[in-house]
Amino acid sequence: MSKDGKNWVGKALPRKEEGRLLRGMGKFADDIKLRDMLYLRFVRSPYAHAKILSVDVSEAEKLPGVVCTLTGAEIAAQTQPFIEIAPEPAGKIRDYPLAVSKVRYQGEPVVAVMAVSAAVADDGAEAVQVEYEALDPVMDAEQALTDASILHEEAGTNRVWNGVFEYGEVEKAFQDAASVVEIDRMHFHRFSSTPLENNVVIGQWDAKDEHIYYWCNNSFPSFAIQFLAAHLNVHIDRIRVQTFDIGGSFGIKITNYPQMAVCALASKKAGGRPIKWVETRSEHMTSSAHGNERTFRDTRVALDKNGVITAITSRHIDDCGAYPRYEPLGCVIWSQVFPGVYRFKNARIGFSQAVTNKCPVGPNRGYSRMQHLWFLERVVDICAHELGIPADEMRLRNYIRPEEFPYTTPNGCVYDSGNYPKMMEVAKNLIGWEGWKKRQAEARKEGRMMGIGIGTTLDSGTNNFGQSQIVNPGAPFSGNSQGANCKLDIYGEVVVAVGSCPQGQGHETTAAQVVADVLNIHPDLISVRTGFDTERNVHTGFSGTYASQFAVSGLSAVHGAAQKLKAEMKRLGAFVLESRQEDLEFGTGQQGPELRSKTNGKSINYWGLANIVNVNSAVLPTEMNDVTLNCRYIWRAPFKVPDTKKKYGNLTMTYASQLHIAVVEIERDTLIPRILDYVAVDDCGTVINPPIVEGQVYGATAHGIGAALLENCVYDAVGNMLTSTFSDYIPITAMNMPNVKYGHVETPSPHSYSGAKGMGEGGAAPIHTISAALQDALFDKGIFIEDSFNNPDSLFRALKGETGKTAELVKVERRVGSKA
Amino acid sequence: MAIKFAGSFEVQRKPEEVYDFLIDPNKFAPLLPDFQGLSVQDAEHFTVRVNVGISYIKGIADVKMHRAEAHRPTRAQYKGQGSVAGGNVSMVAGFDLASAGDGTKVMWEGEAQVFGRLTSVAGGLLEPLGKKQVQKLIDGLQAALQPASGSKS
């Protein structure tokens, strides 16, 4: 409890991490330099799809300073292919970290060259000769599903997965509808995470103790070691992974385990010397992982006479790039937010995923759900425009109502809490809704293209990994868990370790706040270990930092460990202070944090308690032998395995919500969309640390605005990625970021111990919001926004009539005398 | 990224003479812009070493050429593949010959496919640069066959 008598949780405590990070004192994987370390460069495929005819490393190996090379064939001879999550036939895909006989995307690594310096490794990579025979590339997921050109012959098809998610009485809803809106095609584009720090791996296969050591920035290490152990044929306990400060991941660094495999195998070949690979920005753009690209086909929406959506049917085709890897989890993860924030009960969505000759996809902030939420927001806006209902009113008519929470969705997910109308009210007040409406009307009289858009979205946090069984009933995952350890070390310092690997989310601070409240001491008296380390023994199979879950899974684990420690301290304290446990209180005295008796005035500080257990244990009675003051706790989410046939069950624990409003004007001469005003309102339940939450909201907003207007992974017809540098792929920066007004609504979650909800991904609200604003600006010109990426070039094509023609692509059927 | 090129010119040589020139790598290859060297493997295969570069991206490319078609005196076609830092290039170039009065009309067409990071780093420059290099080749060819001939492409 702080001086004002309030809990530390909820206070605007400055981040403990800030000091070292802002002063350049953070420790990142690239800061690690080891004795005899070698540097790795990849030889990458220039082709999107080609047979490898020959690989000649002889000239490279002759270069002074080049120690060895590694090819895909060498790897295939000594490892197992990576585990595939997909069922057969896609489960037959043989995925190795270096291409073996074929390359399947431009930038795919083919050979690794290890040398005494990065520069020599570069020279060595240039000396490697690879002969290819080009094959027809498959650059579109719908084209891929025709199987005209197969990427993975062993699978025999490009289809990774398909399934139908159907709930309610779909046909009846359409029969009863007052109006039916049909939308031919919409498309969610490919973009990347662009963390400040690229992927970095140092791997060492140490023959002396037969361990593999990693110093890296993987953001889901417990998942990585499961893949690596099976691939490398080693016991999982032989793999140690350490992470440090990480310069952002947003999901993308989950997928650097193939490079981790190469570093270990290269080290083995190099006699156990550590191998360091530091990814360049263009490598990151072409070859790390992109976000999923998705096409929405043949969408039909049934509405009643009030504009309330009663049913939706659609076909969704997901492009996962050349290798499924972490996919096809994305085939089901979107269904965590199946109806979005809306009340419709009847829906049928056919979902297919295909491989294409593009960079593999991976989790990317708002992973798999943002595509679906964008789709729903487009549906709502298109229906609103077609039916002449204002966008705000359309939403209010369709939102799940505050009194309906906890709300069970058609597919069995349980939304914990929320108040979307309240969020809209807060957002409208912040932006000055009525004022902008007047200015928009005046602008339109002058022929200016100004639009106001709303995006309401969800950030579902703490997955039930049982949803993987909807994709593959044989998948061995379900539930979710996280571990933490809380101890008094030998000198009585409170030390916390948790199985997360933060990338800027402030875990050290929020974990300290939680423990501070349990022990009634100042958070500065608590040390929270930085980064992740398998040898801390606090990880479970789901440990890492991803999917907006730390506030629930991580802090629940920390809270549990702190409670265990507190209980042990009380037992020990009662013995030492000759007092009853219920008469003890925690606090801070003249000799630091202490435990004191309210009845006899005796007290003992933490050093005293730790001393007895660790170095003065002969004074302890035998009944105290189980007191360690070193308490490990595993938190488990209360999930059940979903019904895999019905695709029904609770897939996520918490649902943070976001409501954004943007005012956008498209410049008449340049067609540059300018954001004139922007509001982001967030509800993540009970707030642990307000500045951290606000910072996450700004970050997610920046990421989404960049994706909506600037960032697009563009490929040409033969699979060249044309946006592999920041000259062409324009990341959002402080220079092109508008001012954002931040608002907050708080509906505590009944599903977490603290009322907090996972947050940080933000549901890609700006993408939905800006699409909505642009459509509002252009709808009277016969244009609807059919793509999630809109820059001056795409707006020019729309205004020329090449895309987004409402008259051709959107059909509305109004029925007289319908039941609805 | 595909770069397509086509055109025609006339020379005051018989089709057989033009054809013989075109299929002789020792005569034809030195006309390639920034030619550095040639090694002939057999009658149908040879490797040309050329300097390539765009701005600061410079290097030497060994382009493996294969004479894919040879129909004396009406048609010859080459296919080639080469690599350079940042990319690979595949090309097809065909020459159709027809009598034109006392001389020969040479109709040429081709396509170069560029693969790799080069397309992203220098994408906007590749097409004009490629066409310029092709024009240099054709100009050199005309000069070698008949210095005074006119070109239209």
Task: Explain this structure.
The complex is a heterodimer of chains A (820) and B (153). Chain A has 22 helices and 29 strands. A 7-stranded mixed sheet of chain A has the order 3-5-1-12-9-10-11, sandwiched between helices. Chain A has a 6-stranded mixed sheet with strand order 7-15-14-13-8-29, sandwiched between helices. Chain B has 153 residues and is α+β, with helices and mostly antiparallel strands. Chain B has a single domain (2-146), classed as START domain (Alpha-D-Glucose-1,6-Bisphosphate, Chain A, domain 4, 2-Layer Sandwich). Chain B is globular and about 45 Å long. The two termini of chain B are 22 Å apart. Mean pLDDT of chain B is 85; it is low at 149-153. At the A-B interface, strand 6 of A face strand 6, strand 7 and helix 3 of B.
Search tags:
heterodimer, A: 820 residues, alpha+beta, Aldehyde Oxidoreductase, domain 3, 3 domains, 22 helices, B: 153 residues, Alpha-D-Glucose-1,6-Bisphosphate, Chain A, domain 4, 4 helices, 26% helix, disordered C terminus
